[in-house]
Design brief:
The complex is a heterodimer. Chain A contains no helices and nine strands. Chain A is mainly β. In chain A, strands 1, 3, 4, 7, 8 and 9 form a six-stranded mixed sheet that branches. Chain A has a three-stranded antiparallel sheet with strand order 2-6-5, with no helix packed on it. Chain A is globular and about 40 Å long. The N and C termini of chain A lie far apart (28 Å). By secondary structure, chain B is mostly beta strands. Chain B has no helices and eleven strands. In chain B, the strands form two sheets. In chain B, strands 2, 4, 5, 6, 9, 10 and 11 form a seven-stranded mixed sheet that branches. In chain B, strands 1-3-8-7 form a four-stranded antiparallel sheet, with no helix packed on it. The chains are: A mainly beta, B mainly beta.
Chain lengths: 110, 122
């Protein structure tokens, strides 16, 4: 059972916009930045969003992050087949004194 | 080019020990905090441990506290994870990852290694 809760799966068709939610608590998302990672099959995770809504250089602006209260969301617009991957949210948890990850969301592009 | 290369994984019996290494290159290793993150087969990511640049601050997940020890040798540009009293549930790919250090207490891991597989089985 992950500290951060994500839907196990999401799907969309090419060109669509999809959102992935991440629910936490006051000890993590409620007071800390949220980070999103993309993990393509068979590869190491890649940082997609930092500080809840900032994109590292090289990440397309089709990816965006937001946070409100104890929840966060990752939105992907103009969905492409190569967006098929697992997506994880993460945040520092003050109660646990360490980072926590969501359980991950498998995105399928239909 | 930043590179992180893990090694030391393998098959070990429950109760056994293993030491993982992560060799870093392409950046000033002694100025970055480093992390170990693991992923059990077919499962999600689980943070394991982190260590600050000078080893002053060390944190562990509750699941490994008292059994695993993180350390680093800045002269050798290397990160380590000593794993003792291994359990079947420790079976996973272990990744080392660099913390960009933009904010304190933030899992902003900008570079990851390819991972090394640890299998705990009798």
């Amino acid at each position: 059972q992950s500290v951060l809760t994500q839907p196990s799966s999401a799907s969309g068709t090419p060109g669509q916009r999809v959102t992935i939610s991440c629910s936490g608590s006051s000890s993590n998302i409620g007071r800390k930045y949220v980070y999103w990672y993309q993990q393509l099959p068979g590869t190491a995770p890649k940082l997609l969003i930092y500080r809840s809504n900032q994109r590292p250089s090289g990440v397309p602006d089709r990816f965006s992050g937001s946070k409100s209260g104890t929840s966060a969301s990752l939105a992907i617009s103009g969905l492409r087949s190569d967006d098929e991957a697992d997506y994880y949210c993460a945040a520092w948890d003050d109660s646990l004194s360490g980072p926590v990850f969501g359980g991950g969301t498998r995105l399928t592009v239909l | 080019e930043v590179q992180l290369v893990e090694s030391g994984g393998g098959l070990v019996k429950p109760g056994g020990s293993l030491r993982l290494s992560c060799a870093a290159s392409g950046f000033t290793f002694n100025t970055y905090s480093m992390n170990w993150v693991r992923q059990a087969p077919g499962k999600g990511l689980e943070w394991v441990s982190c260590i600050s640049s000078s080893s002053s601050y060390i944190y562990y997940a509750d699941s490994v506290k008292g059994r695993f020890t993180i350390s680093r040798d800045n002269a050798k540009r290397s990160l380590y994870l000593q794993m003792n009293s291994l359990r079947v549930e420790d079976t996973a790919i272990y990744y080392c990852a660099r913390d960009i250090g933009r904010d304190a207490y933030s899992p902003e891991l900008d570079y990851w290694g390819q991972g090394t597989l640890v299998t705990v089985s009798s």
